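Human: If only I could read backbone structure tokens as easily as an amino acid sequence. Take your time, and here it is.
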Amino acid sequence: MSRRINILHIISSWESGVGNELAAFAARLAADGFDGEFENEICVLANSTIHRQTPNVPTTTLGMRWSFDVSTYLGVRRIIRRFRPDVIHVWDNTSQMYASQMYRAPHHGTQRIIAERRDTEIPAGMLQKHIDKKTHRFIVPRNLAPWHLAPWKGGDCPKTVVIPPAAVPVPYSAPIPAEELLEKLDIPLVQPSGDYYPVFQSQYEPERRNYKPIPTHSTPFLIGVVLPLCSEHRILDALWVFETMSHVHLNYHAFFIGDGKDSEECLRYRDRWKLFSRVHFFGNHSFGNQCAVHRLLPSCDVLLHLSPSAEHSGTILSAMSYGVPVIALETPESREYISDGTTGLLVPCNGDFRFYRRTTAKKLLYLLENTELRRSMQSACKERVAREYNFDTAVQKRVELYRQIHK
């Protein structure tokens, strides 16, 4: 048997959008064993409020305080000297920067660097080109396949390998009825203050007042938002949408799952708009032996994802694996996962913030009002994840890449 291949995984923090995929992949690599062919270890650069389960995989957290920390750099160097990896697999841009500083350094061996790249924007600047030159392969999804990351002269073959992101297998959790889930969470049921008016329907003409009230939904709709509470993920836009839905007297409850630097501001806006009975914030803590995402997301009717960041687009896959339709901002990453009208709805991101806020509210009300459409989307989501984003297939492709690059 050939010599064992040592693999060092480096990630900026567990809160990164690919943290869940890394933890599951490293655990699978250690559990299956592949006849002892691989030995892997994880290096987490920054502290996180999330703690991923990686059984049988040694994990080191270095406590990075800013983007380039000398103590973190020295910590990565110590790990590389001790572990002597053959392959350094970096999972985001920050970890790629640290790994590139170690390449061909004294006494560090002849390791190869593999980088996960989910962003559709080509990095600019001489520093990023210098970092990319030291990277041997880039793992990209299908929507980045035309980009070969070789604008400089040197390599005869493309440096990219197309491996679609994988939906991490999760323990089956049966959806809990809305009333029962709200009772378990000690959230009181709230009756709408008036009749529900579909004010966003196309035939609505305000000057004629030609709409009729629709009977209030007896069962509240559950809407999930799984994102860090940061302004760049457009959390305030989601709160505006929920505030609009309160004005049309829709019976709903929204669950925000995640922590972030702007959590206090989000709470202030929620209370200012009087949404405290409808909008509920949950951190990354666990309910018993289940994390908040696995406990709440399967019971949601819709996932609302307005973040333009590619880093957290894996949340869309998680929701689709549960059979939850997704309404997402139209980005190259969301187009990779969502077939508009089949597995979810896409919100155009052109125009100002008022445009996509109104469009989001329209699409959300349209999806909640159409029960049959939601049911068809639920089955279509599960089928597409099983067919195109299979976790076992992604594991095998990465393993083959390790073998190929180690030859």
User: Anything to note?
Assistant: Confidence is low (pLDDT under 50) at residues 147-157, 201-211. The radius of gyration is 23 Å. The longest helix spans residues 371-388. DSSP finds 13 helices and 15 strands in the chain.
